[in-house]
Every structure is written in C-alpha cells, then in structure tokens.
Write a structure and sequence with these properties.
8 helices; mainly alpha; extended
C-alpha cells in the first residue's frame, strides 16, 4: 500500500502534504455519532448479558467468584461459536469497537485466524497462526502487568 501511494504521489507530482490533503478530501466520511452509538449499545448489551449470567449462575448456587469464572467461559464459548458460524463478523461490522469488550474480542481474535488457516493444516496452519492477533495482546499485557507489579512493589518499600 505504501509503495502504491508513493507511485500515485509521484505520478500526480505532489508532495506529502498535498497528497494527504487530497486523500482526506476524497476519503468517505464515517458517521461518527452513529458508529459510537452502535458500539455503546452492543458493548452495553454484551456487558448486560454477562451480568445476567453472573446473576443466573449465582441463583443456581454458585459462589460469586465461580459464577464470574463460568460467565467468562460462557462468553468465550459464545463468541468463538458465533465466529465459527460467521455471525460475529456481522455483529462486529454493525457494532465496531462495541464487540471488543475484552473477553469476546479476545475469543474472536483467537478463533478467526484458526478458521482462516485451517486449510494449511493443523500444525502449520491452525497451530502456527492461532495467536497471530492475540499473541501481541498476551505478550504486552503480561509485560505491562509485570512492570506495574514491580512499580507497585517498589512503591510499597518506600
């Protein structure tokens, strides 16, 4: 894409700023308010569903922590299942960032590459590429958590 942009700029005899103004003027406008509203509603719906599951599992006699764990497992399963059926992508197109409520977005980011690479085989396809999207999230999330843990520990020593 970058190489293509450079060729277009050279052909049109434009500098970077002129080309940027040109592309901004011709790019389709996003309906920002509508997109934010959809994200808010769908994200809120997912969170409301999760709270309903916690309440339901609690009513079935589970402790609060166990109900929360089972809710997380349920949401991961539902998001992975909907991804497999091709429904999650339709919801995501409508809701945008609203589907990135952490646990459902994570489940989708693991299952999607697995489905896309299944034809390449279980080891070199699914096994090698299943965490291509989620891997950096896991890595940097873990590193950030460890760094903040060290900072907190050092602050308690002072």
């Amino acid at each position: 894409m970058i190489n293509h942009d450079l060729k277009v700029r050279k052909r049109m005899n434009m500098d970077k700023k002129a080309y940027q103004r040109y592309t901004e003027a011709h790019a389709p406008r996003s309906p920002l308010f509508k997109d934010c509203l959809h994200a808010f509603l769908v994200g809120g719906l997912i969170c409301t569903l999760a709270q309903g599951l916690v309440t339901l599992y609690g009513a079935w006699g589970l402790e609060k922590e166990d109900a929360g764990t089972l809710t997380s497992v349920t949401l991961v399963f539902v998001a992975a299942f909907l991804t497999g059926l091709g429904v999650f992508v339709k919801i995501a197109k409508f809701a945008g960032a609203g589907t990135l409520v952490p646990i459902t977005g994570f489940a989708n980011s693991v299952v999607s590459p697995a489905i896309d690479c299944k034809a390449e085989g279980w080891v070199l396809g699914v096994g090698a590429k299943i965490f291509t999207v989620a891997g950096p999230v896991l890595l940097y999330g873990t590193l950030a958590g460890a760094a903040w843990g060290v900072i907190y520990w050092v602050s308690t020593l002072l």
